[in-house]
Inverse folding.
């Protein structure tokens, strides 16, 4: 039998087992998943030996690119030295990483380790509630977030998520999670144009605080830019104004940096684009470039002080077994060293500028409604026609993505917050993407657009 024949059999064997035993995330029952076997830089290779540009860095996470042997070596070495010890005590990679994160945050924060972005947000909610409870404000338990924002899949993080489609089967959500309309300029929820905008998206937060009763609100959680909900970039003053509202009403500002952090925004953290200091910052994904699971809830040091009494009354009663695993912490440290040594945050910023320029050439396609770029993440909102802004059908969206795939580029599709609104192509490649590869990404999307316009 030829090698090719053997490979085909191997793939068929794998698919038989996959169909029998695997339960894939999010997708409909997936009879024909791509099976990936390796990755190098911005490319991933499947079991057929086909190579694709990973235009989404997996799930917006492999920021330093695939196949970094230096990270693998650090992981192996840490595993051989100390593979595990719980976070009720301490270990060297955990301490060093907490120090490094403080440097990156340009502030003084206490670092609480968990495993995933969802975990990090759950921890933020629990810390915020306990903080107020032990500071004589136990009426403060509510959190405000935005419709279309995504904050995770566990019950609390899902409650904060503003995407009906991901929640409808899993209710009722816990009490205390309130939503406000997003700062979605292309489809302004307040019917405004940029020329008539008076930041109603901020006033609505103030109204919600007032109507709920400020004394009941513990926190506002937001991404600097909504990413998974369709790359919704707020007006320039929005994040600063949210900070001001938090100060005015004594509410904690929780910034979800799970995607925006570690360079994706063109700065170390997304909020640094707006010169604000959050009270709590959550991070995951790019923290390790997804080479190992790890997340962080970074809490303003002075908030931590109220948890620090010797009586034991005020301890934060939360533990998770794997959070702060030394291997994951060592991986995160190496990942950050790579980001620093290879100037990858600056490179992400530069790639963002380049993609913004290149995407302009797609503006004339009648299905291109809006093009949004934040750092090195792009959202291209596709519509049936520019005037009606009717979201492009799912079928056509799939066609665009499959043409990209035929061109060996994997892109994403987002915005699936309510049925029929799954119409935003998302691009978020590794920061090691070359200029030529960037051109290939945009060219593949252009082929996809041509394909549906010629139908
Ligand atoms: N917050 C944001 C902004 C996210 O994009 C995600 C994941 N896509 C999460 C939280 C949850 O992270 P995880 O999947 O690691 O639980």
């Amino acid at each position: 039998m030829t090698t090719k024949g053997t490979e085909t059999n191997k793939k068929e064997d794998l698919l038989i087992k996959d169909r029998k035993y695997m339960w894939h995330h999010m997708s409909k029952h997936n009879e024909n998943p791509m099976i990936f076997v390796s990755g190098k830089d911005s490319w991933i290779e499947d079991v057929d030996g086909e190579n694709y540009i990973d235009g989404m860095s997996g799930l917006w996470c492999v920021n330093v690119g695939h196949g970094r042997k230096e990270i693998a070596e650090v992981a192996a070495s840490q595993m051989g030295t100390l593979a595990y010890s719980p976070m009720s005590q301490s270990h060297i990679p955990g301490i060093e990483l907490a120090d490094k994160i403080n440097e990156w945050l340009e502030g003084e924060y206490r670092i609480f380790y968990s495993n995933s972005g969802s975990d990090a947000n759950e921890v933020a909610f629990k810390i915020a509630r306990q903080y107020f409870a032990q500071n004589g404000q136990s009426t403060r338990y509510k959190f405000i977030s935005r419709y279309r924002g995504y904050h995770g899949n566990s019950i609390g993080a899902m409650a904060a998520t503003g995407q009906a489609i991901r929640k409808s089967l899993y209710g009722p959500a816990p009490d205390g999670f309130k939503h406000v309309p997003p700062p979605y300029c292309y489809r302004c929820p307040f019917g405004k144009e940029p020329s008539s905008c008076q930041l109603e998206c901020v006033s609505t937060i103030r109204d919600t605080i007032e109507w709920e009763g400020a004394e009941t609100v513990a926190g506002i959680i937001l991404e600097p830019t909504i990413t998974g909900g369709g790359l919704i970039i707020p007006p320039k003053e929005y994040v600063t104004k949210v900070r001001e509202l938090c100060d005015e009403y004594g509410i904690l500002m929780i910034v979800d940096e799970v995607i925006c952090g570690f360079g994706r925004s063109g700065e170390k953290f997304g909020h640094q684009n707006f010169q604000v200091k959050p009270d709590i910052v959550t991070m995951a994904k790019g923290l390790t470039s997804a080479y190992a699971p790890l997340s962080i809830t970074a809490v303003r040091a002075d908030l931590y002080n109220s948890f620090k009494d010797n009586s034991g009354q005020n301890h934060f009663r939360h533990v998770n077994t794997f959070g702060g695993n030394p291997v994951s912490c060592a991986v995160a440290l190496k990942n950050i060293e790579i980001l620093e040594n290879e100037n990858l945050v600056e490179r992400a910023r530069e790639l963002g500028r380049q993609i913004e320029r290149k995407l302009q050439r797609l503006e004339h396609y009648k299905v291109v409604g809006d093009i949004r770029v934040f750092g090195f993440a792009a959202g291209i909102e596709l519509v049936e026609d520019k005037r009606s802004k009717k979201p492009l059908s799912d079928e056509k969206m799939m066609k665009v993505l499959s043409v990209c795939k035929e061109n060996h580029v994997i892109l994403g599709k987002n915005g699936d917050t309510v049925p029929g609104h799954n119409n935003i192509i998302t691009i978020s490649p590794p920061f090691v993407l070359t200029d030529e590869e960037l051109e290939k990404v945009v060219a593949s999307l252009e082929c996809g657009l041509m394909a549906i316009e010629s139908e």
